[in-house]
Amino acid sequence: GGGGVMDGPNSGAGIPNWVSSLEEELDKKQIVLLRDGRKIIGVLRTFDQYANLVLEESRERIIVDNVYADVYLGIMIIRGENVVLFGEYDEDRPNERLVKKSVPEVLQLQKEKEEREGPQKSPKPEWGVLDDY
After folding, report:
1. How do residues 101-126 score in pLDDT, each as one tens digit?
2. What is the DSSP letter of 8?
3. CA dist., res. 4 & res. 12, Å (int)
4. Do residues 109 and 78 make contact, with C-beta atoms less than 8 angstroms apart?
5. Measured between alpha carbons, how far is 9 from 103 in angstroms, rounded to an integer?
């Protein structure tokens, strides 16, 4: 083959094809779903060949039923192996299904829900959660 995109997982320069996709996302607000189910929103500043990500102005979105709160985290380095999926986050898109509440209110609701239902032994991401973004 001539080293083209169709010849294998790498481009002719030896750079994986996904790198150019990530480069297009630099300096844009992203939402990242982690293996443990947490959702992190922040501006993608850089990444490396292992898909480790650096997010700036990041916050964790905690969702309990139909309410949410954002906990500010600042700069985050996320190991690529912990990323389930991520994509561009549009803050201007209205969301009628989620209602924003204060962090203490949502944490209290989370605690009450865990007391009712018990803590999850093995947290798994709720795939439908990204429908709300």
Report:
1. 999 999 999 999 999 987 665 455 55
2. S
3. 6
4. no
5. 43
